[in-house]
Amino acid sequence: MRRGKKNRRLMGHMNVVPYIDVMLVLLIIFMVTAPLLQQGITVDLPEVDSAPLDPSLMEDNEVLILSIDAEGRFYLNLGADPESPVADEDVLTTTAAVIRRNPETPVVLKSDQSVDFGRVAYGLALLQRAGATGIGILTDPVEAEAI
After folding, report:
1. Start-end of H helices in 34-112
2. Which three-class secondary structure state does DSSP give residue 37?
3. Which range is least confidently modeled, 21-25, 72-76, 103-107?
4. Total structural domains within the chain
């Protein structure tokens, strides 16, 4: 019995090669899926110097985003297909259902800067009729001018 124990030596290091392989696979997965996580449609936001939204509002709640593209069509980030336009009545009913389920849901309006203000005001009115009380307007921050 003692003879077998004399020949065995303890290994003082850990083999990390399998962990590196797993890390590289996860890195590739994240690199492929990250561009797919962009929500909603692409709009040309106006540049305005404004305060950012409170991040604590968005920690526990999913944000409802109403987007208006350059042609004035509405899009909601919730639903079966967030990339397809939504009718005005659907904006009203979907938003009302989300707000009934969770009254603390943050509601944000994202509009292209070339859209007529009347269409933006109509979108705001739809959100208010659905029960949204605090509606944020998404803008791009103003870039500091080079000195």
Report:
1. 55-59, 88-101
2. helix
3. 103-107
4. 2
Q: By the 8 A CB rule, do 27 and 55 touch?
A: no
Q: How many angstroms separate the CA atoms of 17 and 100, rounded?
A: 51
| Number of C-beta neighbours around residue 59 at 10 A | 7
For the chain, the distance separating the N- and C-terminal CA atoms, rounded to the nearest angstrom, is 80
Spell out the alpha helix ranges (H) of the chain: 2-7, 17-33, 55-59, 88-101, 117-129
Q: Please indicate, yes or no, whether residues 29 and 71 belong to a single structural domain of this protein.
A: no
pTM to 2 decimal places: 0.59
Band the pLDDT of 34: cuts 50, 70, 90.
confident
Q: Which two tokens stand for residue 15?
A: 């083999």
